[in-house]
Amino acid sequence: MDINLVPATPEIVLAVFGLALLVIGAFVRKDAGALVSRLAFAGFGVTLALVCLMAGWTTVQEGLNGLFIDDAFARFAKILVLASAMIVLAMSESWFRRDDALQAEFPVLVVFAVVGMMVMVSANDLMAVYMGVELQSFALYILAAYQRTSAKSTEAGVKYFILGALASAVMLYGMSLVYGFAGTTHFAGIAHVAADGARPVGIVVGLVFVAAGFAFKVSAVPFHMWAPDVYEGAPTPITAFFAVAPKIAALALFARVMVDPFGPWIKDWQQVLLVLSILSMSLGAVAAIAQTNIKRLMAYSSIGHVGYALIGITAGTHDGIRGMLVYLAIYLVMNVATFALILSMRQGGQPVERLSDLAGLSRTAPWAAAAVTVLMFSMAGIPPLAGFFGKFYVFMAAIDAKLYTLAIIGVVTSVIGAFYYLRIVKIMYFDEVGTPLDEFTSRVNSSVLFGGSALVLLGFLGMDWLVTSAQFAGDALLKHAAAALF
């Protein structure tokens, strides 16, 4: 038995940080929330440095008796997850402190959720997948209901827990079917069974159940029903966290499980993912049009973006995985910058969430309105902004894989979805000012808003570097899948 802990060093370090923060939060009486939040930020920074420096991009290491793998694909996803957690944690402090609601529990739960996400993207066995998913989920259930005095937050937490528990049960049942018919939970062993040419119906059914469980975690249609209510009911900083880090981790896990153990059965799972992608893009484009709450609008927007990212996994090719990773990196920047604005929306010191509250922002805060306009154009996929390149790479991967219908539907839904992004621009520039928003006072939020819009605007200058990094990561995943068959 090879218990090699080196590949899991970043996860172990971050877990130790989390346990230490739990103790500090329990014993520090004065301003414990702020102290623990800053220490958690430092912990994420140390872990991010470890992920970047521990091994070269071409190195592949397995540990914990093959349950865990550290490769370029896992590192790319972990960098995105850690970066998003750091940014959201930094933006959250001023929001919670203003309402005197920053407790030590919040950063601790974020830390443990991120540990689960990192385990997810490095899983090399179905048991490791389940452990990572559940560690992430338990923390997220509590985060959704974090604001105990709010009925909406409590409702969001209960809804998310009930539906999440059901999804976990479905996923675990699928894993048990795969184990029962394949005789192993290790990815390489499942891949060997799949490559033998036999198609046990139990494994196919199990694969569908596993995909359904993952679809819930990424809020793909028709497993999306929790997202709008949880996004609206949870405190805004937690909604910002939900919108980026768990989505990135779950989509990376989705790609690894479909391509690595089940790669030889691409024709089976490709049909499932194709339907999920089409339904998610379509609902995300249409349902957001009627929304008046900006957090619910972002929920449906994220559902649509998940549909576009799933195109890359559906293709199942080098270009498809590369396109998905490029899309996730750009999605991270666009979303955290947009939530920097939402976190800054206050009237008379109270947070507001209606789209109409943005009316006249171009006259009260012209630079902020300009930055948001850039972000909305990018989310709509208008060239030469970064959002255009994200969609371009996944659409081209679909065309190269001869998934022409998927690519065409993606373009059409992208055009439809542009309506509600451009409507935000119209509200900011053309609607009459009612009660103006308070002046933006958080330097962190302003830096994220303007920095994110600058990256989106000038992203084409660094696109070659991003695409090359995503190519290395995608190649690592596919090479490991191919090596498992020999």
TrEMBL record:
Membrane topology summary: Multi-pass membrane protein
Family, per entry: Belongs to the complex I subunit 2 family.
GO terms for cellular component: endomembrane system; plasma membrane
Function: NDH-1 shuttles electrons from NADH, via FMN and iron-sulfur (Fe-S) centers, to quinones in the respiratory chain. The immediate electron acceptor for the enzyme in this species is believed to be ubiquinone. Couples the redox reaction to proton translocation (for every two electrons transferred, four hydrogen ions are translocated across the cytoplasmic membrane), and thus conserves the redox energy in a proton gradient.
UniProt GO molecular function: NADH dehydrogenase (quinone) (non-electrogenic) activity; NADH dehydrogenase (ubiquinone) activity; quinone binding
Residues that span the membrane, as ranges: 12-28, 40-60, 72-92, 104-121, 158-181, 201-226, 238-259, 271-290, 324-343, 364-383, 403-422, 448-467
EC number, UniProt record: 7.1.1.-
Coiled-coil regions listed in the entry: none
Protein name: NADH-quinone oxidoreductase subunit N
Organism: Phaeovibrio sulfidiphilus
Domain NADH:quinone oxidoreductase/Mrp antiporter transmembrane: 123-417
Group of enzyme by EC: translocase
